[in-house]
Amino acid sequence: MGQIKVTKAPVEGLYIIEPAVHGDNRGYFMETYNKRDMEEAGLNMNFVQDNQSMSVKGVLRGLHFQKQYPQGKLVRVIKGKVFDVAVDLRKNSKTYGKWYGVELTEENKKQFYISEGFAHGFLVLSDVAEFCYKVTDFYHPGDEGGLAWNDPTIGIDWGVVGRYDGTASAQGYTLPDGTPLNLSDKDQNWLTLKDTFKF
Asked: Whole-angstrom Cα distance, residue 15 to residue 8?
């Protein structure tokens, strides 16, 4: 391996990627992506698009997935701190419905690779967060699906205060410091895993 360290997460298809950071009193340099290192780690993804978003504290985006054109995502935070989560939606997977989360910050410089077949979401823990991600397929309008972020059968521990009322509404949920959760109207209307996928 060269400039990155790749660690498999407990859910197959998820990877924590840590770049080598070269710093001194002037600042730092790091490679945020190296195709050769990724291939040596068994990751042969082909990225076609880079995206960036900014969100304020308490914003929760997700859980999103693509229906017909699934995307692999390499995500990282360049400013602030988020709790990033993936949920396995591969119906033949031994970890179907299981989740894994990792804190991504501008300080730890960790990246999270989420293979195709997962739902993805993140919660902003800092005043502001800037989030960057590379994807393996282009955006296709109308192809997005979603799951209730607080589905009790998935049981994601977001570290928030509040009680599930049978919906994905953010009403009554806060961060531990009292910051209200902030979700889009669409994200407050997704259904549970069971109601979304009826095999």
From this structure: 5
> Rounded to the nearest 5°, which phi and psi values hold at 42?
85, 15
For residue 195, the surrounding DSSP H or E stretch is: helix 193-196
Cβ–Cβ < 8 Å for 93, 80: no
Per-residue pLDDT, 196: 94
- Active-site residue flag, 64: yes
Which regions of the chain are under pLDDT 50?
1
pLDDT at res. 30: 87
- What pTM was computed for the model? 0.94
Is 166 within 8 Å of 75 (Cβ atoms)? no
pLDDT of residue 199: 53
Query: 100, 113, 133, 173: which one is catalytic?
Result: 133
**Catalytic (active site) residue 133:** yes
